[in-house]
Structure formats: structure tokens, C-alpha cells
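hey so i finaly got around to running the thing on NAD(P)-binding domain-containing protein from Lupinus luteus. pasting the sequence first so u can double check i didnt mess up the copy paste, my clipboard has been acting weird all day
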Amino acid sequence: MMGTTLCFTFTTTNVVLKPKHISSNFSNTLCLGSPRSSNPFSHCSVKFSSFSIPRITHLRVSRDSLTPTEESLSSSPPSIGDSDLLVVGPGVLGRLVAHKWQQEIPGCQVFGQTMTTDHHSELIQLSINPSLKWVESTHKFPNVIFCAPPSRTPDYADNIRLAASSWNGEGCILFTSSSAPYDCSDNGPCDEDTPVVPIGRVPRIDVLLKAENVILEFGGCVLRLAGLYKADRGAHNYYLEKGIVDSRPDHILNLIHYEDAASLSVAILKKKFRRQIFLGCDNHPLSRQEMMDLVNKSGKFSKKFDKFTGTNDHLGKRLNNTKTRREVGWEPKYPSFAHFLESI
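ok and heres what it spat out for the C-alpha cells, dont ask me to read them lol
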């Protein structure tokens, strides 16, 4: 970054500068064109007389200049409409949900809540209003979807609770969970009504079930998704990269394309369901070996998968979400993984 001159105006002679909300892009130059140094104020010679500092709650600075491009929602409360949407965790799935919502509801606003500012510029390009995890219950939204994974937080259920506190109860709040909690591991049939693993048996599943319970207590809904995929993401891509995988080939997998998971999420939100659990899958389960045979035969990928070598790991389940499809009025764009491969 080029050297930049900053001018401050203060209203008191007793001033302590605490730039804790300033972006790391200020690290090269902090005052009056000084070069970067271990003490950024060592080259400053400023006589403070009459100064005032405006309150800044969050400032993001572009890479090429120090022009402010965004302020936090907490500094200027937005005007939130009846059809606006808050996406907590606007990653791959969250962004697709936002795009689908914008397509189906012209003129709506979509807000994206993130843990860091790393991708805020990308969200702005997608017409998503980004902010850090903000003033928990100050802003109320009629529609909320929680797409953030549990890996980014030590208390997933508490994060769900904070997101739910931003829901005004008018539209729908939806948590995108996983189909992992269903208590089936013998490649047998499984649907929305299959019992779940009892809490206390599997810690990673406990995390999901406790988070689901929070959403249901608030009156929201849960969407348990099968394995998400697109051309460059998903189980098939992981296996291609590995080449040889120490897992059993006959384990049954269940899949749903990211676009279909997004369209199902939007359909649930628009119907304003309450306290219901839905299942998202393509109704075409297949074994690991069958999936990778399709990948190799498709000729659509530069790499070839070699083999599975495992014999002792657990089996899977055969998901069917006919009940969800009937209740929501939804059908997938990609009815099977094989259909997807043919389309690319």
C-alpha cells in the first residue's frame, strides 16, 4: 500500500487512540505518511490542540485506498422489509440461497452475517449486505437461515440461539443440518420419521441434535441435508484427489446438489413452516464404488479414481424424502448424481 496521510479532528486534549476496529489494511501506514515501523507513531510529530473523533463501529478499507466502503449494521440500523432475509454463514450454500431468494422476490434485501470480514467484498458484489456477528437481538428479520458449519465455533447451539434472537417470528427461521443423526448404519431405508441417534452416543451428532433442538424451541424448522456436492466439491472430488481411499466400497451414500439444497431451503422459507423437520436428498442413493465408477466413465474430470481398500468401516443408509417433497411442493433440478454428470 502506498503511504497515506490521515487527518484527525478532536474535541478534547485528552485523547487515547484505540483503533481496535480498524482493518488490518492500515498496517503499512498509520499516520501522516509515516513508513511502516515497529512503532508506527515514532515518525509522527503532531501537536494536538482541538480535536474530535467520530464514533466508528466497523470500517472496512479497500486494498487500493483508504476509502471507506462499508459500515456495520450496528452503526446505522437498516430498514428491514417483510420479505428480507438474513443468511447466517453465507458460504457456498448460503450464497446460493441468497441468489435464489433474490430471484424469486425482486426488490428484497439479503443480509449476510459472518465471523470475519475476509469475504465481505465478495458478498457486496453479490448484493448481499455483509456484517460481522452483530448486536445480537437489536436487528430483527422476518426470514432467517443458518448455514454456518459447527467447525467455526466452540458452542454451536449458542450460535444458533443468537441467530434465532434475530428472528422476528413473522416468516420462517431454518437451520440446515445433516442427515447424520438418523440412527441407521446398515445400508437400510431411512426417511423423515426414522429415529435419531440418542444424545450421548456420538459427540459430533450430539452437537447437531442440540442445535436442532434450539431452533425447534424457537418455532423454527430443520432441514437435514444429505451429502452436498457440485462439480468441484463433494465426496467424489475428495476421492478423486486421494486416488486410493481406505474405506469400504459398498457403503451407501446419499447426495443432493448445492443448487437443489438452496432451492429446497427457499421453498421451506417461503411456506413459513413452524417446528418441522425436513429431509433433503435426491432419492437416488448409490454406493461409493458406484459413484466413482460413474465419475471415471463420465470423462468429465482430469483425474481417475483408483480404488477403495477398506473392509471394516460402517455402512450407510438409503434416504428417501418423498414426504418432504409432497409437503413442500419441491422437486430437484438434478434428480440423481448420474443426471448431474450428464449435464456438465
